[in-house]
Amino acid sequence: MKSNITRCAMPAALLAALILGACQNAVAPSNWSGVPAGKGLVRIEAGFGAAGAGGANNVANSVAGVSRTVFPSMTGFSRYQYLFAKDGETAVDKPPDDSGLFELEAGRYTVTVNTFVGEETEPATEGTSGEFAITAGAETPPVKVSLTVAVETGEGAFSFTLSYPEDAELESFTLTRLAGEESFELAELGQDEGIGMNGKIFSGAQGGIGAGYWLAWVSLYRDDLHAGKSEVAHIYDGLSTGLNWTFSEDDFTAIPVVSGANEGPGTLREAIERVKAAGGGTIFIELPENGKVITLTAPSPQLSRSK
User: Fold this and answer.
1) Is residue 33 part of a domain?
2) How far apart are CA 71 and CA 206, in angstroms?
3) Alpha-carbon gap, residue 162 to 160, rounded angstroms
4) Rounded distance between C-alpha atoms, residue 256 and residue 268, angstroms
5) CB atoms < 10 A from the CB of 93, how many?
6) Do 127 and 100 share a domain, yes or no?
7) What is the domain extent for residue 275?
8) One domain, residues 242 and 258
C-alpha cells in the first residue's frame, strides 16, 4: 500500500527568522537580569525646575519680559545622594546601578535628592519627589525631582556668549541682583572673539557673584533699531551659570521702554536720546504690570519735529 506524502518546502530565510524570533521572545529584558522577585526598577531624573513650577519659576515670572530661568550645568556637582522613604518609613540612602536605575521592593515611595560640590559635606541643592509606586516585575516611569538651593550663601560664577550682526553695537549688558542693589557691568568684562557664523562673538565670565537670583539684561543697537533680552540667572555656591544668546537682523525692532525710572537702561529718557542721536526712530512702551507710571524729572528731554 502506497501512502501519499505531501512535502512542503519552507524558505530558509523564513525559517531562520522564525527561529530567531522565538529565541528573542524567550529572553527576559536585560533590565531584569538578576533582579530578585518582588522588586521593581525606577529611574530618578533630578534637575532645576524638573517637576514644574517652583521658586525659581515664580521669581522669573515676576520680572516683565523674562520667560525662563538659566541654571548652572548639572555636571558641576561632584556627588549625588538619593534617600528613599517607603510608606513613610525612615529614608534609606541608595545609589543607582551602572545604568542609572534603582532596584526597590514593591511599595509606595518618595525620594529626596541632595547634590554636593567638591568635598563639601552640606548639600548645595536638594529636592523631594511626590509619591510614586514600585510594582514588582515592572519599571516605573521616570520620577522627576526639582532641585532648589539648600542654603542661599556663598559665591558662584556667571559666563556668557553673545552673537550678533557685524554692524550692530553692544550698548549695555548687566547682571543685577533681584530685589537688591548689586550689579555687574558685563559689557566691560567680556571681550570680542572675532566673527563667527552668526556675526560678532562677545564672551566672558565673572566670578565672585553672591548666590541667589540675578537679572541678566542685554541691549544692542543697529542704526535706529534695538534688540534686547533678559533672563533670570540662578547663581549657586561653587558653580558656574552660563547663557548663550544669538541675535539676528530680524531681532532688531523699535526701541523698547521697559522701566518707569527717570534715567538709565530701558527708560523713556534713554529711548528719546537714542532716537535723537539716530536722527529718528520708533519707541515702543512695554512697562511691567506693577510699574506703568513713567516719571521724568528736570531736565526733561527735548524733541523737535522736522518739516
Assistant:
1) no
2) 15
3) 7
4) 8
5) 10
6) yes
7) 254-297
8) no
Are 140 and 165 in a shared domain?
A: no
For the chain, how many structural domains are there in total?
3
Q: How big is the CA angle at 240 (ends 251 and 122), to the nearest 5 degrees?
A: 145
In a structure prediction context, what are the per-residue pLDDT tens digits for the chain, which is 307 residues long? Answer: 444 433 444 444 433 333 334 333 333 344 555 677 889 999 999 887 544 333 333 333 333 333 456 666 666 678 899 999 998 789 999 999 988 899 999 999 999 999 887 777 888 788 999 999 999 989 999 999 988 777 678 898 999 999 999 999 998 898 988 767 788 999 888 888 878 777 899 999 999 999 888 888 888 888 778 888 888 888 888 888 888 999 998 888 777 787 777 777 778 888 888 777 666 667 777 766 555 666 555 565 555 544 4
Query: Is residue 289 domain-shared with residue 279, that is, in the same domain?
Result: yes
Residues 83 and 121 in one domain: yes
Q: Supply 298's cell numbers.
A: 528736570
Q: How many CB atoms are closer than 10 A to CB 250?
A: 7
Specify if 292 maps to a domain: yes
